[in-house]
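Worked Example 4.2. Consider the chain below.
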Amino acid sequence: MYRIIYVSFLKKGTEIEPLIKDIKEKSASKNPKHYITGKLLYSSNTFLQLVEGPKVNVDVLYAIIKNDPRHKMGELIFENEVNDRLYPDFDMMISEVHGLNLNVINKVLKVSNDFQNSSPSDQEILKKMEELENFLIK
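Applying the procedure from the previous section yields the following structure tokens:
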């Protein structure tokens, strides 16, 4: 089992609603076949996505995402082998939040070389994702 967390940004001229609709449709139809689960938080132009599944499937999906012309990649925040899924019941849980940006992500997730290199536990990552979502919903 493999997990990545990355940030990306909506390209200028791309409308968010059709993009989110497309992501929902594709993740519902394709992710279960490829044993992919995860969570996507998005705001007006920023996306934070956690993707988990078999490494080869996650790598293929991430390559597709990186080449999607509707957004530009920010940074890969985390990648690691893991034992269990954080979102086993969701082909892709999608939540709209307000004020998501790289500064907020860095503040809440405390993104640094220490985070990237420390292999945080599943519970630490889940807690940080929930903190981020709760911080932005308020």
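The chain has a mean pLDDT of 82. The domain at 2-137 is CATH 3.30.70.100 (Alpha-Beta Plaits). Compare this with Example 4.1 before moving on.
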